[in-house]
Amino acid sequence: AKEIATMMEGYRKNPPQMINGSKVIELLDYKSGEGHSLVNGKRWKLTTPASNVLQFILEDGSKISARPSGTEPKIKFYFSVNTNLASEKDFEATEEILDKKITSIIADMKLAGS
Question: pTM of the full predicted structure?
Fold first, then answer.
């Protein structure tokens, strides 16, 4: 549990600057209740209940959320990625692009095997 707390604190104090080639532009810290722009340094209060969750907002619109498991000694990561869908016939190819994007984020954050 101490190792997990140390990792979360490391993400809070030193958030990644880039993830998968996309600049991290905001850090939302639901534990402290504060949002922080990594572009201009502005800070603001979040209006959600406090929780030990961090969310990284990327320049490409992707979001990566991290939270310690409540029952296991590990951090759980959640990914939200997006891209344009030109037409329904492109759905499978677009889905493959998004799957590859998630795989690349996992590799870039060195989360493989987690």
Answer: 0.87
Residues 8 and 27 sit within 8 Å (Cβ to Cβ) = no
**Secondary structure, 3-state, the chain:** CHHHHHHHHHHHHCCCCEECCEEEEEEEECCCCEEEECCCCCEEECCCCCCCCEEEEECCCCEEEEEECCCCCCEEEEEECCCCCCCHHHHHHHHHHHHHHHHHHHHHCCCCCC
Q: How far apart are CA 50 and CA 33, in angstroms?
A: 6
Interatomic CA distance for residues 64 and 109, integer angstroms:
10
Query: 77-99 in b/e burial notation, b at 16+ Cβ within 10 A?
Result: bebebeeeeeeeeeeeebeeebe
* 8-55 tens-digit pLDDT: 999 999 999 999 999 999 999 999 999 999 999 999 999 999 999 999
Residue that has been written with the tokens 């310690």 in this structure = 68
